[in-house]
UniProtKB/TrEMBL annotation:
Transmembrane segments: none annotated. InterPro entries: Beta-barrel_TonB, Beta-barrel_TonB_sf, CarboxyPept-like_regulatory, Plug_dom, Plug_dom_sf, TonB-dep_rcpt-like. It is a multi-pass membrane protein. Belongs to the TonB-dependent receptor family. Residues 310-765 form the TonB-dependent receptor-like beta-barrel domain. It comes from Cryomorpha ignava. This is TonB-dependent receptor. Keywords: Cell outer membrane, Ion transport, Iron, Iron transport, Membrane, Receptor, Signal, TonB box, Transmembrane, Transmembrane beta strand, Transport.
């Protein structure tokens, strides 16, 4: 590789550089500078300086933007009039909506660990796959797809923390489900097409709304004001009959100060796994008024999904083509002949479910109203109200179900008592989530003060219906067999202070969060549930960054966060026990360098957990998995993220995370079914790995631009071995995998449309056979310990090709 790089011909190179200031002469550090034709954008240094090197002596379009100022445009020629530029940004004559997310985002100078993803980076890979797949090449992130092709149910882990421990907001409004604390990306199809930027904060980050961040925060910002009218028609097609159709428009800023934007999307895929189809529809609509001191913006976006279930993983024996193992598994599970044949004849794409309507059917609609009021040049207020309506069900065919499990009496037919029958059931969720947020910001004399907070209220109705039963009893069509409610109220308030000196930036952040959770009624296992819990959390954070020179800095950060247990932790807890809240003490330190060729960050982290909730193998009285608090556990590691441009046409982007993730003391519970009433075997472990926490996560991208408007990216992702549980057992693990993708993008300007863009994405070009997620359980029977592993295989070589018509 090195020989190849040095062998590249290097022509005479030039620069474009300068300094960005406000109209009052103050340097604007963190201004966004984009050079058309150059691979990456840069942010100005603490002194407002920027530089693009290794440029050919030709013309380039320059764009400089900073929140609250008018965007600067110019056309320059490298080597002639592009050096030592003095760019002065004038205050915007109208407010912009970018300040909506400023209260919950980290600034470029903040002493914490984060990654910004631009709209261009989102668009490059947006050919129909869900957002976790688009973010797969960001530091410390592992993405997975139940259907194996990136459409439908997908999820991510960051630093080994699952989706329930990642705080997600859209325009500062919480998206995590308040009860499960998870994020279901399938409910927001093609949200990527309506995003202007994403910030991923690793660790605790800064105070925000919604559930506590125990691994990371993902802050998404929807499209901000585009002063020019336009739109785009986007179509893509690919393997597994995957297709995406999107139409977008925006009015630009009209003379009366109003602007309107909208999108319609449809995504469908058959999935890699058998029958794992997805049919997704969504829309996005926003309208706003932009005045000199006032912005009012209304946003609504909605998603409707109907996906065939692929939640049940593939048995390890099926992946290994182990016929004896498959037959043993089928016998242990009591499979019918048809179910056994499905297992034996399906291959890697095996799906346990075969019932035609084994689907998840859900609709979720979000409404947001934002108000931004500028009272003075250094004082502004942001208010937001939100309401989310969700409603839907998943339908299941259950063979040989017990009447008693549905609260129904046995059937008496001809004097015979029948206790089991085949049924079809639907389990419903009908919920409402509403509330408001505020942030008051004051800036003066290098001080930046923010007072913010929010109040959020969730009302959830859980109920189940029996759609059909083979044997008739007292069961009527659509008869309800359970119902319970889950109500959650959260109020938080936070204060933030940033202070900048010539070389120092200091940050202090304090959040107080109150949570009240109530659930009662009859659960799906026919048990009464009655939970009423209150929590009060105090979450402080401090940090400092020191500027070594105009291009490099070091920083340190310390924070403490708390998080309440999720719904299942309460309702599945054995009688007489209840889960405790989790606590995280987070420490970060790093080094950052930005120059004309190299953008590099080096970060070390230590995440010390108290009372982390983990699966132990324990089951409650009705067989549901129980999570228990473990006293002490931690994650410690280093992360490296960098981009180096050898030439304008050639560069490398790479990141790697190396970590140690341990539980100090762990007690495994194994059930011994040899005993008449069931026995329990306990095994204690010390200093074992936390499940789903690989010690190495690395990715890289080779960037090649051989021709104008043509870009080729060769991308690699490596994830080391992951354990399926907390015993650090090699026989209960996911093998390490290394996957390579290829992206080719080509654009044509100045035709009938403003631009025509072609994109080709070839995933897994070397056809690696790998799984990215799974689960396990073990039990003792017949004097032997049996372990069953289940995996979610990902697709082999597959492609997506797209055409965008931009106008």
């Amino acid at each position: 590789m090195a020989a190849m790089l040095y062998a590249l011909p290097i022509a005479a190179q030039s620069q474009i550089n300068g300094v960005v200031t406000s109209n009052t002469g103050g340097a604007l550090g963190g201004a966004h500078v984009v050079l058309n034709g150059y691979e990456r954008a840069v942010y100005t240094s603490f002194n407002g300086e920027f530089e693009f090197g290794n440029l050919k002596p030709e013309k380039y379009a320059l764009r400089v933007s900073y929140i609250g100022y008018q965007t600067y445009y110019d056309t320059l020629e490298a080597g002639r009039n592009g050096e030592n530029l003095k760019i002065i940004l004038e205050p915007s004559r109208f407010l912009t909506d970018e300040v909506v997310v400023s209260a919950t985002r980290l600034s470029q100078k903040a002493p914490a660990t984060f990654k910004n993803i631009s709209k261009r980076e989102i668009e490059e890979r947006n050919l129909g796959q869900d957002l976790p797949m688009l973010l797969n090449y960001t530091p410390s992130l592992v993405a997975t797809s139940d259907a194996g092709a990136g459409v439908g149910y997908t999820s991510m882990r960051i630093r080994g923390s699952d989706q329930t421990r990642i705080n997600v907001t859209v325009n500062g409004i919480p998206i995590n489900d308040p009860e499960s604390q998870g994020v279901f990306w399938v409910n927001m199809p093609d949200i990527s097409s309506s995003l202007s930027s994403i910030q991923i904060q690793r660790g605790l980050g800064t105070s925000t709304n919604g559930s506590g961040a125990f691994g990371a925060s993902i802050n998404m910002e929807t499209n901000t004001l585009d002063q020019g009218a336009g739109g785009m028609i986007s179509n893509s097609f690919g393997s597994f009959n995957t297709r995406k159709h999107t139409v977008q428009f925006n009015s630009g800023l009209l003379n009366n100060g109003f602007a309107v934007e909208g999108r319609l999307s449809e995504i469908a895929s058959d999935g890699y796994i058998d029958r794992a189809s997805s049919n997704l529809r969504s829309y996005y609509l926003s309208g706003g008024y932009y005045g000199e001191k006032t912005v009012v913006k209304a946003i609504t976006f909605s998603g409707t999904e109907r996906t065939y279930q692929s939640w049940y993983g593939t048995p390890q024996s099926r992946l290994n083509n182990d016929v004896d193992g498959m037959l043993t598994h089928a016998a242990n599970e009591g499979y019918s002949e048809a179910q056994t044949q499905n297992l034996l004849n399906s291959g890697r794409t095996y799906n346990y479910y075969t019932y035609d309507n084994q689907v998840d059917d859900y609709e979720q609609t979000h409404y947001q109203l934002h108000l931004i009021q500028k009272f003075a040049p250094n004082l502004s207020l942001t208010l937001a109200g939100h309401y989310t309506k969700g409603q839907g069900f998943f339908e299941e065919y259950k063979p040989r179900a017990k009447f008693i499990d549905y609260g129904k009496p046995n059937a008496i037919i001809g004097g015979d008592t029948i206790s089991r029958t085949d049924i079809i059931r639907r389990r419903w969720l009908d919920n409402d989530f509403y509330g408001g947020t505020f942030s008051l910001n004051y800036e003066k004399n290098n001080h930046n003060l923010t007072l913010g907070g929010g109040a959020h209220f969730y009302r959830g109705n859980h109920f189940g219906e029996i759609v059909w039963a083979e044997v008739s009893t007292t069961v009527d069509h659509l008869e309800e067999y359970y119902r319970n409610i889950g109500d959650k109220d959260e109020v938080n308030i936070y204060g933030k202070w940033d202070y900048s000196l010539e070389k120092w930036t200091f940050m202090a952040d304090l959040q107080i969060r109150s949570v009240n959770y109530i659930t009662n009624g009859i659960d799906n296992d026919q048990l009464n549930i009655d939970v009423s819990e209150q929590f009060l959390f105090v979450n402080p954070k401090v940090g400092a960054r020191y500027k070594l020179n105009s291009r490099s800095s070091i920083y340190g950060y310390a924070g403490r966060g708390n998080r309440e247990p999720v719904r299942n932790d309460f309702i599945d807890a054995p009688e007489g026990t209840k889960p405790r809240a989790e606590t995280l003490n987070n420490f970060e330190a790093g080094y950052a360098l930005i120059d004309d060729k190299l953008n590099l960050t080096f970060n070390g982290f230590y995440m010390d957990y108290e009372n982390q909730l983990v699966l132990t193998g324990e089951l409650n009285d009705v067989g549901s998995s129980v999570r228990r608090n473990v006293d002490k556990s931690y994650r410690a590691g280093v992360e490296i993220d960098g981009t180096y441009m050898f030439l304008k046409e050639f560069g490398v982007n790479a990141n790697a995370a190396f970590s140690r993730n341990k539980i100090e003391n762990f007690n495994e519970v194994i059930y011994d079914y040899d005993e008449i009433n069931g026995g329990i075997l306990n095994k204690n472990y010390n200093d074992v790995d936390i499940s789903f926490s690989p010690t190495v996560v690395a990715s890289g991208m080779l960037i090649i631009k051989p021709l104008k408007n043509l870009e080729i990216n060769f991308m690699s992702k490596y994830v080391s071995k992951q354990y399926l549980d907390n015993t650090a057992s090699d026989v209960r693990s996911i093998d390490a995998y290394w996957v390579n993708d290829l992206r080719i993008g080509y654009g044509i300007d100045d035709l009938v449309f403003d631009r025509i863009e072609f994109n080709l994405l070839i995933n897994n070009i070397f056809d690696a056979k790998y799984s990215s997620n799974g689960y396990t359980y073990s039990y003792a029977f017949g004097g032997d310990l049996t372990t069953e592993n289940f995996y979610y295989p990902q697709a082999g070589t597959n492609f997506l090709i797209g055409l965008n018509l931009v106008f």
